[in-house]
From TrEMBL, chain B:
Domain of life: Bacteria
A molecular function (GO) term: ATP hydrolysis activity
Family designation: Belongs to the ABC transporter superfamily.
The ABC transporter domain, residue ranges: 6-234
Key words, A-Z: ATP-binding, Nucleotide-binding, Transport
Pfam family, one: ABC_tran
Keyword Transport: yes
Stored InterPro entries: AAA+_ATPase, ABC_transporter-like_ATP-bd, ABC_transporter-like_CS, P-loop_NTPase
Keyword Transport annotated: yes
PROSITE patterns on file: ABC_TRANSPORTER_1, ABC_TRANSPORTER_2
Gene source species: Planococcus donghaensis MPA1U2
Name recorded for this polypeptide: ABC transporter ATP-binding protein
C-alpha cells in the first residue's frame, strides 16, 4: 500500500500530471459553451403542454424545407423520424440537459487513454532516466511488488481521470443546461430504430466500455516501458497502435485470423447494439477471452523484463 | 574473529563471453572501513551492483550478515544502505519528500529518525527545497541520508566524496569513521582517488581488471620497517655530510640547505644526536612519508583496460 502511495505522490508532484487535468477541465468547459451557443436550436427547445401539435407543425415545416433544399433531404428525415417516435409512443421530448452532455463527453475517454499511455510509458522508464531505479531496487522489497505497485498506480490514475471527466462534465452540464431529473430517459437511434433508455445506464455503459481500450493500451505502454526502458518508444508505439488499430483490422479483415487481433476485440459495443459484426464467428465470450490473453501476455512480458534483467549503467 | 559483515565468495560476472569480474574473494568485518580501490573500468561499480543485487551474479555469491543476496534478497538487503554511482534523486520532490519515499519502503523509520539523519548530514533547511536545485554536494549528502535511514549494518558508498568541497569531504570522512567506530557499521567506500581512501580506510582492496590484486592494511604502510626519506636542514652543511658518510653506509644527497637520506624510522633520533654532538646546528627535520600511492602504482602498473 505504501508503495502505491509513493507512486501517486511521485505522479502528482509532476507538473505534467496537472496539465492533463487542466486540459480535461478546459475541454469540458469549452465544449459546454460550444454546445450551448453553437448547438442546434431545436435541441434546446422546450415544448409546452400541447407538444403533440408543436411536433406535427415542426414535421410539416421540415418536409416543406426538404422540397426547397436538396441538402435537407438528407438531414431532415432522421429528425422527422425521431419526432414521429415521440408522437407514436406518447413521450414528451425533453430539452438537451447536463446528463446528455456527460454521455456525449464519453468520447473524451480516448483523450484519457492518451494521457494514461503517457503515464504508463513513463512510470518505469523515468526511474531509469532519473537513475532512481537503483535506489528503488535496493530496498527489502521484491521487484515484483514494485512492478505491480506501479501498474496499480497507472490504473488508479486512469480511473481518477475518468471520474474527474465525469464529474466536471456533469457540473458544467448541470450549470449550462440544467438537469431533467435524476435519471431521465433519452431517446437513442439504434440500428434502424429508436429506443428509450435510462441515461444513467447509458453513461455507465459508454464509460465502462471505454475502459476496455484504456486498460489494454495502458498495459501495452507499460510493457514497452518495462522492456525497453524508454518512454518515448512506449508512448509512440502505443499511440500509433491506438490510432491505427482499427485501420489495421479493416485492412486485414479479409483474413480469418484477423479476429485474433487485439483491436478487433476492444470494441465490445459491437455486441450490445445488435449492429453488424466484423466477423460473424465472433462472440462476446470470444472477445473477452482474446482480451484476457493479450492482457496476461503484456503483463507477463513486463514482469519478465523487469524482474530478470540487470540494472546496468546508463 | 566474529562473523564477517559481508563476504564475497568467488564472485564472478560474465557479460556475453567477456569476464568482467574474475573471482573476488574477501570479507569485510563489522566496524571496519574498507576501501575499494581501482582505476576506472576495473570493475568497482559492477562489483558493488552485485553486492546490492542490482545485477545477476554469474558465479559465486555475496553473503550479507550470512544471508545470500541471490537466494535471500530481502533479508540480505535490509542490512545494507548504499549509494550506487551518483546519488540520483527525484528532481521534482523536495529533499524531505525524497527521503519519505524511502522511509515508506522499510519498516520502523520514524520522523524522528529522518530528522536525525538530516541533521547528521548537515542539510538543515535545504531539505525542504526541491532536489532538482541541489548542487552535487547536497545531493551527495541526501544520498548518504537515504542510505542511513534504516540503520544499516553495512554502508556501501560509491565515490562518496565526489563533488564535495574540501570541508564537506572532511566532514564525511569524520562521519564515516564515527559510524564505523561508534556504531560498528561496516563501511565500503569505493574510489579511484587513493589519497581519499588512504585517509579514511582501515583496509584497502585493490582491484584491477576484475581481479583483486592486493589487500593492504593502511596502518601497516605507515609504520612499516621500510626506509623513509629524511630531510635534515643543518649548518654547516658540508662537514655534516662528510661526517654522516663516514658513519652510515647510506648515500647522502645534498640540496641547497638540506641533507637527504633514506633510513629506517627508528634510526632517526640516533643520527640527529650524533650530528648535534659534532657541533652541527639543526634547524629542521622532515620525514617524507612513503605513501600508498607508490605502492598503488607498483601494484596496478599502467592502467590498461582489457
Amino acid at each position: 500500500m505504501n508503495l502505491i502511495w509513493n507512486e501517486q505522490i511521485k505522479l502528482y508532484a509532476q507538473k505534467s500530471t496537472w496539465v492533463m487535468f487542466i486540459v480535461i477541465l478546459a475541454i469540458a468547459i469549452g465544449g459546454g459553451f460550444l454546445t450551448k451557443f453553437m448547438g442546434e436550436e431545436a435541441d434546446f427547445k422546450e415544448y409546452g403542454d400541447n407538444w403533440q401539435t408543436e411536433l406535427q407543425e415542426e414535421n410539416a415545416q421540415l418536409i416543406a424545407d426538404m422540397e426547397k433544399d436538396e441538402f435537407k433531404e438528407f438531414t431532415n428525415p432522421p429528425i422527422i423520424a425521431e419526432n414521429n417516435y415521440h408522437l407514436e409512443n406518447n413521450i414528451k421530448p425533453k430539452p438537451y440537459d447536463g446528463w446528455e452532455y456527460v454521455l456525449e463527453n464519453s468520447f473524451l475517454s480516448s483523450l484519457i487513454s492518451l494521457f494514461t499511455i503517457v503515464v504508463a510509458a513513463g512510470i518505469i522508464s523515468n526511474e531509469f532516466k532519473w537513475g532512481t531505479i537503483k535506489l528503488l531496487l535496493i530496498r527489502p522489497i521484491s521487484r515484483t511488488k514494485i512492478l505491480f505497485s506501479k501498474y496499480a498506480s497507472v490504473l488508479i490514475f486512469a480511473l481518477t481521470l475518468l471520474i474527474f471527466l465525469l464529474v466536471t462534465s456533469w457540473i458544467v452540464g448541470a450549470i449550462l443546461f440544467g438537469l431533467n431529473g435524476l435519471n431521465p430517459s433519452i431517446i437513442q437511434h439504434q440500428s434502424e430504430d429508436f429506443v428509450q433508455n435510462g441515461v444513467f445506464g447509458e453513461i455507465v455503459e459508454a464509460y465502462g466500455l471505454s475502459l476496455v481500450t484504456l486498460v489494454m493500451m495502458a498495459t501495452f505502454a507499460f510493457m514497452i516501458s518495462a522492456i525497453f526502458r524508454s518512454s518515448g518508444m512506449a508512448i509512440g508505439l502505443a499511440i500509433f497502435l491506438m490510432m491505427a488499430g482499427n485501420a489495421i483490422v479493416a485492412f486485414l479483415a479479409q483474413y480469418e485470423w484477423s479476429k485474433y487481433i487485439l483491436f478487433a476485440n476492444t470494441n465490445l459495443k459491437q455486441y450490445m447494439d445488435g449492429g453488424v459484426l466484423m466477423n460473424e464467428s465472433m462472440t462476446l465470450t470470444f472477445s473477452v477471452v482474446v482480451l484476457l490473453v493479450y492482457f496476461i501476455v503484456f503483463l507477463g512480458a513486463a514482469w519478465t523484463a523487469f524482474t530478470k534483467r540487470d540494472i546496468a549503467g546508463q | 574473529m566474529s562473523k564477517p559483515a559481508m563476504q564475497l565468495v568467488k564472485l564472478k560476472k560474465t557479460i556475453g563471453k567477456k569476464p568482467i569480474i574474475k573471482g573476488l574473494d574477501f570479507e569485510i568485518q563489522a566496524g571496519e572501513v574498507f576501501g575499494f580501490l581501482g582505476p576506472n573500468g576495473a570493475g568497482k561499480t559492477t562489483t558493488i551492483r552485485m553486492m546490492v543485487g542490482l545485477i545477476d551474479i554469474t558465479e559465486g555469491d555475496v553473503l550479507i550478515e550470512g544471508k545470500s543476496i541471490k537466494t535471500d534478497f530481502k533479508n540480505a538487503i535490509q542490512h545494507v544502505g548504499a549509494i550506487v554511482e551518483n546519488p540520483e534523486m527525484y528532481p521534482f520532490l523536495s529533499g524531505w519528500k525524497n527521503l519519505q519515499q524511502y522511509a515508506r519502503m522499510v519498516e520502523g523509520v520514524t520522523e524522528a529518525r529522518m530528522n536525525e539523519v538530516v541533521s547528521l548530514v548537515g542539510l538543515g533547511n535545504a531539505i525542504h527545497e526541491k532536489a532538482g536545485r541541489y548542487s552535487l554536494g547536497m545531493r551527495q549528502r541526501l544520498g548518504i541520508a537515504q542510505a542511513l535511514l534504516h540503520r544499516p549494518s553495512i554502508l556501501i558508498l560509491d565515490e562518496p566524496t565526489n563533488g564535495l568541497d574540501p570541508s564537506g569531504i572532511r566532514e564525511i570522512r569524520k562521519y564515516i569513521r564515527n559510524l564505523a567506530e561508534k556504531e560498528n557499521v561496516a563501511v565500503i567506500v569505493s574510489s579511484h582517488l587513493l589519497s581519499e581512501i588512504e585517509l579514511m580506510c582501515d583496509r584497502i582492496g585493490i582491484i584491477k581488471n576484475g581481479e583483486l590484486v592486493a589487500i593492504e592494511n593502511v596502518q601497516s604502510v605507515e609504520t612499516e620497517e621500510s626506509l623513509q626519506e629524511v630531510y635534515i636542514e643543518a649548518e654547516p652543511l658540508a662537514p655534516a655530510k662528510t661526517y654522516l658518510e663516514t658513519q652510515l653506509a647510506n648515500k647522502i644527497g645534498v640540496t641547497a640547505k638540506e641533507l637527504s637520506l633514506s633510513v629506517k624510522r627508528e634510526e632517526i633520533p640516533a643520527i640527529l644526536k650524533k650530528l648535534v654532538e659534532q657541533g652541527i646546528s639543526i634547524y629542521g627535520v622532515r620525514v617524507l612519508q612513503a605513501t600508498l600511492e607508490d605502492k598503488f602504482f607498483d601494484l596496478i602498473g599502467e592502467n590498461t583496460i582489457e
